[in-house]
Amino acid sequence: MIEVKHLTKSFEGRKVLDDIDALFESGKTNLIIGRSGSGKTVMMKAIIGLTRPDEGQILYKNRNILAMGKNELNHLRREMGMLFQGSALFDSMTVQENVMFPLDMLSRATARERRKRAGFCLERVGLSEAHDLYPSEISGGMMKRAAIARAIALQPQYLFCDEPNSGLDPKTALVIDDLIHGITKEYGMTTIVNTHDMNSVVNIGENIIFISEGIKEWQGTKEQVISSSNTALNDFLFASDLLRKARELENRHREETR
Fold first, then answer.
1. What is the chain's mean pLDDT, rounded?
2. In angstroms, what CA-CA distances link 208 with 30, 31, 52?
3. Distance between CA atoms of 126 and 110, rounded to whole angstroms?
4. How many CB atoms sit inside 10 A of residue 107's CB?
Protein backbone atom coordinates (compact mmCIF):
# COMPACT_ATOMS: atom_id res chain seq x y z
CA MET A 1 0.00 0.00 0.00
CA ILE A 2 1.13 3.52 -0.80
CA GLU A 3 -0.51 6.55 0.80
CA VAL A 4 -0.09 10.14 -0.38
CA LYS A 5 -0.94 12.94 2.03
CA HIS A 6 -1.25 16.65 1.18
CA LEU A 7 1.04 16.33 -1.84
CA THR A 8 1.87 19.76 -3.26
CA LYS A 9 4.30 20.74 -6.00
CA SER A 10 4.90 23.98 -7.92
CA PHE A 11 7.13 24.85 -10.87
CA GLU A 12 8.05 28.50 -11.47
CA GLY A 13 5.17 29.68 -9.32
CA ARG A 14 2.58 27.43 -10.99
CA LYS A 15 1.01 24.82 -8.71
CA VAL A 16 0.87 21.49 -10.59
CA LEU A 17 -0.15 19.37 -7.59
CA ASP A 18 -2.47 20.96 -5.04
CA ASP A 19 -2.85 19.27 -1.63
CA ILE A 20 -3.54 15.77 -3.01
CA ASP A 21 -4.54 12.87 -0.77
CA ALA A 22 -4.71 9.39 -2.31
CA LEU A 23 -4.51 5.73 -1.35
CA PHE A 24 -3.04 3.10 -3.69
CA GLU A 25 -4.07 -0.36 -2.57
CA SER A 26 -2.04 -3.59 -2.55
CA GLY A 27 -3.13 -6.33 -4.92
CA LYS A 28 -5.01 -3.89 -7.13
CA THR A 29 -4.40 -2.02 -10.36
CA ASN A 30 -4.44 1.62 -9.31
CA LEU A 31 -4.86 4.02 -12.26
CA ILE A 32 -3.99 7.71 -12.43
CA ILE A 33 -5.92 9.39 -15.25
CA GLY A 34 -6.33 12.95 -16.50
CA ARG A 35 -5.75 15.26 -19.42
CA SER A 36 -2.25 16.12 -20.63
CA GLY A 37 -0.77 18.68 -18.26
CA SER A 38 -3.11 17.70 -15.43
CA GLY A 39 -0.24 16.80 -13.09
CA LYS A 40 -0.50 13.00 -13.16
CA THR A 41 3.04 12.48 -14.51
CA VAL A 42 4.49 14.79 -11.84
CA MET A 43 2.52 12.83 -9.25
CA MET A 44 3.96 9.52 -10.47
CA LYS A 45 7.50 10.96 -10.41
CA ALA A 46 6.98 12.24 -6.88
CA ILE A 47 5.74 8.85 -5.69
CA ILE A 48 8.81 7.00 -6.99
CA GLY A 49 11.20 9.65 -5.71
CA LEU A 50 12.27 11.29 -8.98
CA THR A 51 10.67 14.63 -8.07
CA ARG A 52 10.62 16.06 -4.56
CA PRO A 53 7.32 17.73 -3.62
CA ASP A 54 7.17 21.05 -1.85
CA GLU A 55 4.86 19.67 0.85
CA GLY A 56 3.27 16.41 1.89
CA GLN A 57 4.10 12.80 2.69
CA ILE A 58 4.49 9.67 0.54
CA LEU A 59 4.13 6.58 2.70
CA TYR A 60 5.17 3.08 1.67
CA LYS A 61 3.56 0.92 4.36
CA ASN A 62 3.88 3.90 6.72
CA ARG A 63 7.50 4.57 5.67
CA ASN A 64 7.85 8.15 4.42
CA ILE A 65 10.07 8.11 1.31
CA LEU A 66 10.76 11.83 1.77
CA ALA A 67 12.37 11.23 5.17
CA MET A 68 14.55 8.28 4.12
CA GLY A 69 18.33 8.29 4.14
CA LYS A 70 20.35 7.08 1.17
CA ASN A 71 20.64 3.44 2.32
CA GLU A 72 16.96 3.11 3.19
CA LEU A 73 15.96 4.73 -0.10
CA ASN A 74 18.19 2.36 -2.07
CA HIS A 75 16.63 -0.59 -0.26
CA LEU A 76 13.13 0.66 -1.10
CA ARG A 77 14.03 1.06 -4.76
CA ARG A 78 14.96 -2.62 -4.87
CA GLU A 79 11.30 -3.25 -4.02
CA MET A 80 10.15 -1.27 -7.08
CA GLY A 81 9.61 -2.46 -10.65
CA MET A 82 9.35 0.03 -13.53
CA LEU A 83 7.62 -0.32 -16.88
CA PHE A 84 8.57 2.66 -19.04
CA GLN A 85 6.48 4.14 -21.84
CA GLY A 86 8.91 3.16 -24.59
CA SER A 87 9.81 -0.19 -22.98
CA ALA A 88 13.44 1.10 -22.63
CA LEU A 89 15.07 -2.18 -23.60
CA PHE A 90 18.77 -2.17 -24.38
CA ASP A 91 19.18 -2.68 -28.15
CA SER A 92 22.57 -4.37 -27.77
CA MET A 93 21.23 -7.01 -25.37
CA THR A 94 19.08 -10.05 -26.07
CA VAL A 95 15.66 -10.30 -24.49
CA GLN A 96 17.04 -12.61 -21.81
CA GLU A 97 19.98 -10.29 -21.12
CA ASN A 98 17.56 -7.37 -20.75
CA VAL A 99 15.54 -9.28 -18.17
CA MET A 100 18.71 -10.33 -16.36
CA PHE A 101 20.04 -6.75 -16.20
CA PRO A 102 18.47 -5.79 -12.83
CA LEU A 103 19.39 -9.21 -11.46
CA ASP A 104 23.01 -8.76 -12.52
CA MET A 105 23.07 -5.29 -10.96
CA LEU A 106 21.26 -5.89 -7.69
CA SER A 107 20.82 -9.60 -6.97
CA ARG A 108 23.24 -11.71 -4.92
CA ALA A 109 22.04 -14.88 -6.64
CA THR A 110 24.44 -17.05 -8.64
CA ALA A 111 24.62 -16.73 -12.43
CA ARG A 112 22.67 -19.98 -12.76
CA GLU A 113 19.95 -18.73 -10.40
CA ARG A 114 19.74 -15.42 -12.26
CA ARG A 115 19.29 -17.19 -15.61
CA LYS A 116 16.63 -19.41 -14.08
CA ARG A 117 14.77 -16.41 -12.70
CA ALA A 118 14.94 -14.59 -16.05
CA GLY A 119 13.64 -17.70 -17.80
CA PHE A 120 10.75 -17.94 -15.35
CA CYS A 121 9.80 -14.28 -15.89
CA LEU A 122 9.92 -14.67 -19.68
CA GLU A 123 7.73 -17.76 -19.47
CA ARG A 124 5.28 -15.85 -17.25
CA VAL A 125 4.80 -13.19 -19.94
CA GLY A 126 4.66 -15.70 -22.80
CA LEU A 127 8.13 -15.06 -24.25
CA SER A 128 9.96 -18.27 -23.40
CA GLU A 129 10.92 -18.79 -27.07
CA ALA A 130 12.27 -15.26 -27.59
CA HIS A 131 15.09 -15.15 -25.05
CA ASP A 132 17.87 -15.15 -27.69
CA LEU A 133 16.25 -12.49 -29.87
CA TYR A 134 17.15 -8.78 -29.84
CA PRO A 135 14.59 -5.98 -29.35
CA SER A 136 14.82 -5.09 -33.06
CA GLU A 137 13.69 -8.63 -33.90
CA ILE A 138 10.44 -8.61 -31.92
CA SER A 139 7.15 -6.71 -32.15
CA GLY A 140 6.11 -3.74 -30.03
CA GLY A 141 3.80 -5.92 -27.96
CA MET A 142 6.57 -8.43 -27.34
CA MET A 143 8.87 -5.60 -26.29
CA LYS A 144 6.29 -4.50 -23.71
CA ARG A 145 6.04 -8.05 -22.40
CA ALA A 146 9.83 -8.29 -22.18
CA ALA A 147 9.85 -5.01 -20.26
CA ILE A 148 7.24 -6.42 -17.85
CA ALA A 149 9.41 -9.52 -17.37
CA ARG A 150 12.35 -7.25 -16.52
CA ALA A 151 10.18 -5.18 -14.16
CA ILE A 152 9.21 -8.23 -12.11
CA ALA A 153 12.62 -9.92 -12.17
CA LEU A 154 13.49 -8.76 -8.65
CA GLN A 155 10.05 -9.73 -7.32
CA PRO A 156 9.02 -6.16 -6.50
CA GLN A 157 6.34 -5.18 -4.03
CA TYR A 158 5.52 -2.09 -6.11
CA LEU A 159 5.04 -1.89 -9.88
CA PHE A 160 4.91 1.46 -11.71
CA CYS A 161 3.71 1.60 -15.32
CA ASP A 162 3.97 4.76 -17.41
CA GLU A 163 1.56 4.64 -20.36
CA PRO A 164 2.08 0.88 -20.87
CA ASN A 165 -0.21 0.76 -23.93
CA SER A 166 1.36 3.67 -25.78
CA GLY A 167 1.87 2.82 -29.45
CA LEU A 168 0.01 -0.50 -29.28
CA ASP A 169 -3.04 -1.59 -31.25
CA PRO A 170 -6.23 -2.16 -29.18
CA LYS A 171 -5.96 -5.97 -29.22
CA THR A 172 -2.34 -5.98 -28.03
CA ALA A 173 -3.17 -3.30 -25.45
CA LEU A 174 -5.78 -5.62 -23.95
CA VAL A 175 -3.15 -8.36 -23.67
CA ILE A 176 -0.81 -6.00 -21.81
CA ASP A 177 -3.64 -4.84 -19.53
CA ASP A 178 -4.56 -8.43 -18.67
CA LEU A 179 -0.92 -9.29 -18.05
CA ILE A 180 -0.37 -6.34 -15.69
CA HIS A 181 -3.62 -7.09 -13.88
CA GLY A 182 -2.85 -10.82 -13.59
CA ILE A 183 0.67 -10.28 -12.27
CA THR A 184 -0.62 -7.72 -9.77
CA LYS A 185 -3.08 -10.26 -8.37
CA GLU A 186 -0.62 -13.14 -8.49
CA TYR A 187 2.10 -11.36 -6.51
CA GLY A 188 -0.10 -9.03 -4.43
CA MET A 189 1.81 -5.98 -5.66
CA THR A 190 0.77 -2.36 -5.37
CA THR A 191 0.55 -1.42 -9.05
CA ILE A 192 0.18 2.17 -10.21
CA VAL A 193 -0.57 2.83 -13.89
CA ASN A 194 -0.35 6.29 -15.42
CA THR A 195 -2.51 6.08 -18.53
CA HIS A 196 -4.39 7.87 -21.29
CA ASP A 197 -5.95 4.58 -22.46
CA MET A 198 -9.62 4.68 -21.55
CA ASN A 199 -10.03 1.01 -22.41
CA SER A 200 -7.67 0.31 -19.51
CA VAL A 201 -9.98 2.24 -17.20
CA VAL A 202 -12.94 0.07 -18.21
CA ASN A 203 -10.98 -3.19 -18.17
CA ILE A 204 -8.66 -3.06 -15.14
CA GLY A 205 -9.47 0.13 -13.20
CA GLU A 206 -9.95 -1.29 -9.72
CA ASN A 207 -8.93 1.99 -8.06
CA ILE A 208 -9.00 5.09 -10.28
CA ILE A 209 -7.70 8.53 -9.35
CA PHE A 210 -8.69 11.40 -11.62
CA ILE A 211 -6.44 14.47 -11.58
CA SER A 212 -7.60 17.76 -13.10
CA GLU A 213 -5.45 20.90 -13.10
CA GLY A 214 -3.39 19.59 -10.21
CA ILE A 215 -6.38 18.70 -8.03
CA LYS A 216 -7.65 15.22 -7.19
CA GLU A 217 -11.19 15.57 -8.45
CA TRP A 218 -12.38 12.01 -7.96
CA GLN A 219 -11.40 8.52 -6.78
CA GLY A 220 -13.34 5.31 -7.28
CA THR A 221 -13.69 2.05 -9.23
CA LYS A 222 -14.42 1.27 -12.88
CA GLU A 223 -18.00 0.48 -11.84
CA GLN A 224 -18.41 3.81 -10.07
CA VAL A 225 -16.85 5.83 -12.89
CA ILE A 226 -19.91 5.14 -15.06
CA SER A 227 -22.37 6.72 -12.65
CA SER A 228 -20.20 9.53 -11.26
CA SER A 229 -21.79 12.96 -10.92
CA ASN A 230 -18.43 14.77 -10.89
CA THR A 231 -18.63 17.40 -13.63
CA ALA A 232 -14.89 17.55 -14.39
CA LEU A 233 -14.68 13.75 -14.60
CA ASN A 234 -17.70 13.49 -16.87
CA ASP A 235 -16.33 16.20 -19.15
CA PHE A 236 -13.10 14.21 -19.42
CA LEU A 237 -14.90 10.92 -20.00
CA PHE A 238 -17.26 12.30 -22.64
CA ALA A 239 -14.32 13.90 -24.43
CA SER A 240 -12.55 10.53 -24.56
CA ASP A 241 -15.78 8.67 -25.38
CA LEU A 242 -15.21 6.42 -22.38
CA LEU A 243 -18.64 6.93 -20.83
CA ARG A 244 -20.39 5.72 -23.97
CA LYS A 245 -18.14 2.64 -24.19
CA ALA A 246 -18.58 1.87 -20.51
CA ARG A 247 -22.35 2.08 -20.71
CA GLU A 248 -22.37 -0.10 -23.80
CA LEU A 249 -20.34 -2.72 -21.94
CA GLU A 250 -22.64 -2.49 -18.93
CA ASN A 251 -25.76 -2.91 -21.11
CA ARG A 252 -24.18 -5.83 -22.95
CA HIS A 253 -23.36 -7.52 -19.66
CA ARG A 254 -26.97 -7.08 -18.49
CA GLU A 255 -28.27 -8.62 -21.70
CA GLU A 256 -25.93 -11.60 -21.38
CA THR A 257 -26.92 -12.29 -17.76
CA ARG A 258 -30.67 -12.19 -18.32
1. 89
2. 6, 5, 23
3. 24
4. 16
